[in-house]
Specification:
Layout (H helix, E strand, L loop, with lengths): L14 H5 L3 H7 L7 E4 L6 E7 L4 E7 L2 E2 L3 E5 L4 H15 L7 E5 L4 E5 L5 E2 H6 L7 H15 L7 H11 L3 H10 L19 H8 L2 H16 L3 E2 L9 E3 L4 E3 L7 E2 L1 H18 L10 H29 L16 H32 L5 H4 L4 H21 L6 H16 L1
Antiparallel strand pairs: 1-2, 2-3, 3-7, 4-5, 6-7, 8-10, 9-12, 10-11
Helix pairs in contact: 5-10, 5-11, 9-12, 10-11, 10-12, 10-14, 12-14, 14-15
This protein binds 5-S-methyl-5-thio-alpha-D-ribofuranose (SR1) and magnesium ion.
C-alpha cells in the first residue's frame, strides 16, 4: 500500500506549520517557522502562489489547485501539472542555465513547488504596461527559445532520451486540451466562456467568426500543434511568464510543457509584444508612448534575429541527434548541404511562428483568458480600437503567413494600423 496524503490546499495560516520542517525552506528563511510571514500573491489563472518571508530571507511556494482558479471548481484540472512544471523547469535550467528560478523542493502529492523568490524582478507584462523598456529582453528571450527548443529536440538529443521524455510529457493531456480549445477553436465560434469588449467589437467579432479562410487556417495550425511533437515546449510563453529587471530575465510557469512544434513558443512570445504594441495607445494618459511603440517593434525583431542566430549556432555545433546527421553533410565534405537544410528548417519555423502568433492574438481578445495589456484600458471605446488593430494583424498573420517575407513587412502593417486609428 502506498502512503499518500490527501491533497490539502495551503493557506497563509497553515503554511508555516505544514512546510516548516522542509530543509529547502528552513535553510533560506530561517528555522523559526513561527516568525514566517506569508502572503498569497497569485494573480494567474490556475494556481496559488505564496511569498514566504522568514528572518533570513524569502521564497516562493507555488501550489496547483485541483481546478481552474479563474473559473472555479466547475472546471476540474489535475494536480499533475505541477509535476510537468517541475520537470520542465529542470530541463530548461540544464538547457539554458540561469534563465529559470532555482528550485528548492518539489512535492508531487501536494502539487507544491518551492522556488527562489526573484527580487527586484517584476512580471514583464506589467513593466510593458507601465512603459518600461527592458534592454536585454529581446536577446534573452530569443536565446532562451533557441536553446531550450533546439536542445529538447531530435536535433540534439539521443533518440532514447527524447522518446522517454516525449512519453513522460504526453500525459499533460488536460493542459494541452486547454490550449487546443482556448487558443485554436473557441475564439472562432461562440464558445460559452468567451468574452470580448462589447458592443464595440461585436461587428468585427462576427466578421472573424464568419471568415472561412481564417477558420480553416486556424485549424491547420491546431493540426500542427497536436501532431508536430518536435521539442519540449514551455507551452505558455507569454509576457506574463517572464520576470525581469533591467539586467536579468527569468522565465517561469512552464506547466503547459509538452512536446510540440518549435514555432509555438516563439510565436506566442512575439504575439504578446505585438499586443503590447497595440495596447500602448490605451496607456498614453501620462504622455506619448511612441518611444515605447518603437521599442516593442525592435524587440520583436531582436527576439526573432537572436533566435535564428542562436539556433543556427547550435545547428552547427550541437547537431548530434538523429536529424540531418553530420554523416550526410559535413562528414561528406558537404557543409553547404547542412546550411541548406538549416534554411529550410528556419523557414518552416518562421511560417508556423507567424500563424501561432496570429491565433494567440485572437484568443486573448475573443476567448476566455484575456491579458492585462488591453484589460487595464478603462475607456472601452479606446480599448476596442486597440483590440481591433491587433485582431486585424492577427488575421493577416494566420491567413497570409506563407506569403510574408520578413518582420519589416509586418511591423510596417502594425504601424499603418496604429496610424489610421490615431488620425
Ligand atoms: C483556463 S487557463 C487560461 C489560460 O491561462 C494560462 O496562463 C494559459 O495561457 C491558458 O490558456
Ligand atoms: Mg501561467
Amino acid at each position: 500500500m502506498t502512503d499518500t496524503k490527501p491533497f490539502v490546499a495551503l493557506c497563509p495560516e497553515t503554511l508555516p506549520q505544514r512546510l516548516g520542517a522542509l530543509p529547502g525552506l528552513k535553510e533560506r528563511l530561517g528555522a523559526n517557522n513561527n516568525s514566517w510571514r506569508v502572503k498569497e500573491v497569485g494573480d494567474g489563472n490556475l494556481n496559488l502562489v505564496f511569498i514566504v518571508e522568514g528572518e533570513q530571507g524569502k521564497a516562493i511556494v507555488k501550489q496547483a489547485l485541483p481546478y481552474v482558479r479563474l473559473v472555479g471548481e466547475s472546471w476540474p484540472l489535475p494536480l499533475k501539472r505541477s509535476f510537468f512544471e517541475y520537470h520542465a523547469l529542470m530541463r530548461q535550467s540544464e538547457r539554458d542555465p540561469g534563465t529559470v528560478p532555482q528550485i528548492f523542493h518539489f512535492d508531487a502529492e501536494q502539487a507544491i513547488i518551492v522556488m527562489e523568490f526573484l527580487s527586484p524582478h517584476v512580471i514583464l507584462r506589467r513593466a510593458l504596461i507601465e512603459g518600461r523598456q527592458l534592454p536585454r529582453i529581446g536577446r534573452d528571450l530569443g536565446r532562451f527559445a533557441a536553446r531550450t527548443l533546439f536542445r529538447g529536440s531530435d536535433l540534439a538529443m539521443t533518440a532514447r532520451r527524447r522518446k522517454e521524455d516525449l512519453a513522460l510529457f504526453s500525459d499533460n493531456v488536460e493542459l494541452c486540451d486547454i490550449t487546443e480549445n482556448l487558443v485554436f477553436s473557441d475564439p472562432y465560434f461562440e464558445a460559452p466562456l468567451n468574452r470580448h469588449t462589447s458592443p464595440q467589437l461585436d461587428g468585427t467579432v462576427a466578421q472573424l467568426r464568419a471568415d472561412r479562410d481564417l477558420k480553416v487556417e486556424a485549424q491547420k495550425l491546431k493540426h500542427t500543434f497536436t501532431s508536430k511533437a518536435e521539442t519540449l515546449l514551455h507551452g505558455d510563453l507569454h509576457t506574463g511568464s517572464v520576470m525581469v529587471t533591467a539586467d536579468e530575465t527569468r522565465v517561469i510557469d512552464p506547466e503547459f510543457a509538452f512536446y510540440g512544434p518549435i514555432a509555438f513558443d516563439v510565436g506566442m512570445m512575439i504575439a504578446n509584444f505585438w499586443m503590447s504594441y497595440f495596447s500602448q495607445s490605451g496607456h498614453e494618459a501620462q504622455g506619448s508612448r511612441q518611444g515605447m511603440r518603437d521599442y516593442l517593434l525592435a524587440v520583436v525583431v531582436e527576439i526573432w534575429t537572436t533566435f535564428c542566430e542562436e539556433f543556427s549556432q547550435l545547428w552547427r555545433c550541437e547537431r548530434n541527434g538523429i536529424l540531418y546527421q553530420r554523416s550526410l553533410f559535413e562528414d561528406r565534405g558537404d557543409p553547404l548541404g547542412a546550411e541548406q537544410a538549416l534554411d529550410h528548417v528556419l523557414h518552416d519555423i518562421w511560417t508556423d511562428m507567424l500563424g501561432f502568433a496570429g491565433v494567440e492574438i485572437h484568443r486573448r481578445i475573443l476567448g476566455l483568458a484575456h491579458n492585462a495589456d488591453f484589460e487595464t484600458i478603462a475607456d472601452l471605446d479606446l480599448r476596442a480600437r486597440c483590440e481591433t488593430n491587433a485582431l486585424k494583424l492577427g488575421r493577416h498573420l494566420v491567413v497570409n503567413r506563407r506569403h510574408i517575407h520578413g518582420l519589416a513587412e509586418i511591423n510596417s502593417l502594425a504601424k499603418l494600423l496604429e496610424k489610421e486609428t490615431v488620425s
